[in-house]
Amino acid sequence: MREERDVDLSVQDGSCSLEVVSQRASQTQRIGMALGGLLQAGDLILLDGQLGAGKTTFTQGLAKGMHVTDVVNSPTFTLLKEYMGSQSRDQKESAGAPLALYHFDLYRLDDPDEIVDLGFEDYFYGSGVCVVEWAGNADELWPADRLYIRLSTVDETKRRLLFVATGQRYCELLQQLQKNMYAITRS
């Protein structure tokens, strides 16, 4: 049986937050998958948390939700990996194109300006979805409107995911995710 505190949404002053406790890695992936199915071109998802908190696990689920069929792993040594989603049945019916997933890992980033120097900033305002692990390493570069997710370890298998949305698009996204969460947190 699901605990009432597994999903908790709060809204304040143009931002909203959602706290979720995931019981295991597969559930963390399902939460990511639920979010991935809601994303649109230009969305920016910022992930933070200590090593082993589940950032890549979450991103793997998010990629599945975007219909990415490639194996998704952390781009720690390359800073960026690009994946193309395939068209879902809904996209084919509505003539929507599949989304690209741009997966960044800033763990080894020495200076946030490297992102600008490498031209990565263009991705953040492009036609795909950007997911950035270790986003705290470049805090000053992110736009005000975004979805920030802090993953933390509760115990060996449990993870706490704190979603903080700023801007109307991301608050609406988080509210839609919250509506979908009740089915996910039960399993």
From TrEMBL:
Its main location: cytoplasm. It is found in: Cytoplasm. It comes from the Bacteria. Pfam families: TsaE. One of its GO terms (biological process) is tRNA threonylcarbamoyladenosine modification. Belongs to the TsaE family. This is tRNA threonylcarbamoyladenosine biosynthesis protein TsaE. It comes from Dictyobacter vulcani.
